[in-house]
């Protein structure tokens, strides 16, 4: 029995150490998924629920029918803080592309979730630790869907 156990352990170790074949794209996507799943804190889960709530209340339209003044994914927009008069220029991106130093905000961040789907002239609240800030969409500098329509 001891011999069988040693063989089984040796075979298991050999299998664990054997390389598997995977495409680069699959590897990258799976790595991101594992990293994201491992890092979801209670706050992360709350942010995910906030985004789900926004999506649940959305009006779904075809790409060809989206107005060019609506903030969509990868849109670059200018927001005005109605209390401080501070202007912010932000691009709404997927979490892995987020880089606040470059003005790229994740759709999972409270501000990213809040700005999704609003159009020029709309006002909305952004939850912050001490309450909420009121923002207004003042301009859309870039919207991918509008650029696609121009190229067509």
Got a strand count?
Answer: 5
Which percent bin holds the helix content?
40-55%
Q: Which spans have pLDDT < 50 for at least 5 consecutive residues?
A: 1-5, 11-16, 20-27
Q: What fraction of residues sit in β-strands?
A: 15-25%
Strand order of the largest sheet: 3-2-1-5-4
Shape, principal axes of CA atoms: globular
Count, helices? 5
Write out the CATH superfamily name of the domain at 65-151: Transcription elongation factor, GreA/GreB, C-terminal domain
Could you describe the largest sheet, including whether it forms a barrel? 5 strands, mixed
Q: Which CATH architecture of the domain at 65-151 would you pick?
A: Roll
Oligomeric organization of the protein chains: single chain
Write the layout of secondary structure elements.
Elements: H1 2-17, H2 24-39, H3 42-56, E1 76-81, E2 87-93, E3 104-106, H4 110-115, E4 123-128, E5 131-142, H5 144-151
Parallel strand pairs: 2-3
Antiparallel strand pairs: 1-2, 1-5, 4-5
Describe the structure.
The protein has 152 residues and is of the alpha+beta class. It has a domain at 65-151: Chitinase A, domain 3. It is built from five helices and five strands; from the N terminus they run H-H-H-E-E-E-H-E-E-H. A five-stranded mixed beta sheet has the order 3-2-1-5-4. A hairpin with a 5-residue loop joins strand 1 and strand 2 (87-93). The longest helix is centred in the first third of the chain and has 16 residues, at 2-17. It is globular, with a radius of gyration of 22 Å. The protein starts with a helix and ends with a helix.
